[in-house]
Amino acid sequence: MKLLSYTIIGAFLLISCSGDSEEDLQDVPDNGGMPVSEVPLTFEKDISTLIEGRCSKCHGTTPRFGAPASAIFVTFDQVNANADRMLARMSNGTMPPASEGALSASFISAFEQWIDDGKLEK
Ligand code: HEC
For residues 75 and 26, what is the distance between their CA atoms, to the nearest angstrom? Predict the structure, then answer.
């Protein structure tokens, strides 16, 4: 009789444990099975707000504060076409102008990562 109850308790523990691990698996976000750090960055999700925050004051639809008309960085097509020039000026620390405050290293590495990921729109 004792043996039977141990067996029942054991089976119960086994069932509840395997139930737990299934719940844990369901908590992992569904990103096609890729580790989170390898999810590609996209213009719409990751890049447009960065550019808007630090570049659009001068490189908006109407260029301002001396920014050339050839340097409008608002839409995906504009940023896509100018990405290498933009990265070069970010990396050498000449954009934005010093008076605007330096970019964070994570800003520049996100932009670089987006280029490496193939400059995805969305
Ligand atoms: C306060 C205004 C201002 C901000 C903010 C600013 N820029 Fe500029 N940008 C300028 C001006 C003025 C020029 C033209 C003079 C020069 O090339 O240094 C310029 C030129 C450039 C050029 C060269 C364009 C060409 O035709 O050769 C690039 C690339 C550039 N900026 C990228 C950026 C990026 C990327 C950001 C945001 C991270 C940014 N800028 C933020 C004012 C700004």
Answer: 37
